[in-house]
Amino acid sequence: MSIKVHIKKGDNVKILAGDSKGKTGKVLEVVLEKYKAIVENVNMATKHSKPNAKNPKGGLLKQEMPIHLSNLMLVDASGKATRIGLKKDEKTNKTVRVSKKSGEVIK
């Protein structure tokens, strides 16, 4: 079963709800099984870590936590949050994402 997702890795998104509401950032990873995404420098949490080979001192680490995809909205090239539509490209005959506000194809 494939899940249709309106957001992909590398997209710029705006946060619609939660403590990080109003912030924008780049999507680092999309977790399809949980329908969540990790956005750069958004929804930060403090993790306690024991000393290990990677971090010999241990201590507190700041880390991005996943956000549900329903709380994210794609930001198009003009810098505005927009809804997404799907359209067939006449030249390549492939399905492409299109901004509902501007009508531009989203890369």
CATH class group of the largest domain: Mainly Beta
* Quaternary status: single chain
The chain-level mean pLDDT equals 92
Structural class of the helix and strand makeup?
mainly beta
Number of strands: 10
**How many angstroms separate the termini?**
25 Å
Enter the CATH topology name of the largest domain.
SH3 type barrels
Number of helices: 0
Radius of gyration, in angstroms, nearest whole number: 17 Å
Main pleated sheet: 5 strands, antiparallel
Q: What is the helix fraction of residues, given as a range?
A: under 10%
Helix-strand pattern: EEEEEEEEEE
Shape: elongated
Structural overview:
The structure is a single chain. With 107 residues, the chain is mainly beta. It folds into two domains: 1-51 and 59-75, SH3 type barrels, CATH 2.30.30.30; 78-107, no CATH class. The chain contains no helices and ten strands. It has strands spanning 12-15, 24-31, 36-39, 44-49, 59-64, 67-68, 72-74, 84-88, 95-99, 105-106. The strands form three sheets. The protein has a five-stranded antiparallel β-sheet with strand order 6-3-2-1-7, with no helix packed on it. It has a three-stranded antiparallel β-sheet with strand order 8-9-10, with no helix packed on it. Strands 4-5 form a two-stranded antiparallel ribbon. Strand 1 and strand 2 form a beta hairpin. It is elongated and about 55 Å long.
Q: How do you describe this structure in short?
A:
This protein folds into 2 domains: 1-51 and 59-75, SH3 type barrels (Roll), CATH 2.30.30.30; 78-107, no CATH class.
